[in-house]
Amino acid sequence: MKRKGIILAGGSGTRLHPATLAISKQLLPVFDKPMIYYPLSTLMLAGIRDILIISTPQDTPRFEQLLGNGEKWGLNLQYAVQDSPDGLAQAFIIGERFIGDDLSALVLGDNVFYAPKAPACLPTTCRTRSATAWPKSNYTVTGLYFYDNQVAELAKSLKPSPRGELEITDLSRLYLEQSKPNVEIMGRCYAWLDTGTHESLLEAGQFIATLENRQGLKVACPGEIAFRQNWIEVARLEKLARPLAKNGYGQYLLRILKEKVY
């Protein structure tokens, strides 16, 4: 069964003020590319091509300007508005029609994943607990979730938490009660970075810069991923690269066409 993806790129980014007073945090750069390229690439590497981007009324047009309809990467990108940040689980209610009868995946727009294998193998959750409870283990929940096609109905059955939000932990708890969760633990060579603060945003950029400079390879490069997934052809990749030829990002795409870059 096909799986569709959702990127939740809303919120007000208060922890990043004043940098996010006039722009979505998911449009801020993480080293050499917009933050949203990272969750987008995570879904692409999982083989997901139908993706819904949920953002605020004021920021949705900016994402559309940046990403378009996804055709340039062999994707089908759609957009939806979240009028107010009422919890992560609300993403499935907003995206109910988009998901339809397909499987689903949700990735948070400010999460950066780096893994040696496809992110379909990344953990979705480790333990479910209240957002305000004291942690009972050393495990934490990452910002990447894979669900079945019943997720929207279950999300609609949730009641707001004391902080007034539809909690993703409550949604996961429903699956736990049905004995349906599939849990995987991040092992060595995995990296999960939250970019929601000034310090963590800087650290994420430094991490990506170190990887790219040492390896000579790009992390979260949608054009490269689409090309290697055989979603676009040589001519399309070259068309993507030419307008960017004056910087390292575009030069990297051109190098893919000329050399065996792995």
Individual helix count: 10
Average of pLDDT: 91
Tell me the major beta sheet: 5 strands, mixed
The CATH fourth-level homologous superfamily: Spore Coat Polysaccharide Biosynthesis Protein SpsA, Chain A
Look up the CATH topology.
Answer: Spore Coat Polysaccharide Biosynthesis Protein SpsA, Chain A
Strand line-up of the largest beta sheet: 5-4-1-6-8
What would CATH call the architecture?
A: Alpha-Beta Complex
Number of domains: 1
In the CATH scheme, the class would be: Alpha Beta
Q: Point out poorly predicted stretches.
A: 119-134
Distance between the termini: 30 Å
The radius of gyration is 18 Å
Quantity of strands, as a count: 9
Helix fraction by DSSP (H/I, runs of at least 4)? 25-40%
Order of helices and strands: EEEHEHEHHEEEHHEHHHH
Q: How would you classify the helix and strand content by structural class?
A: alpha/beta
Shape: globular
Beta percentage is 15-25%
Keywords: Magnesium, Metal-binding, Nucleotidyltransferase, Transferase
InterPro entries: G1P_thy_trans_s, NTP_transferase_dom, Nucleotide-diphossugar_trans
Pfam family, one: NTP_transferase
EC number: 2.7.7.24
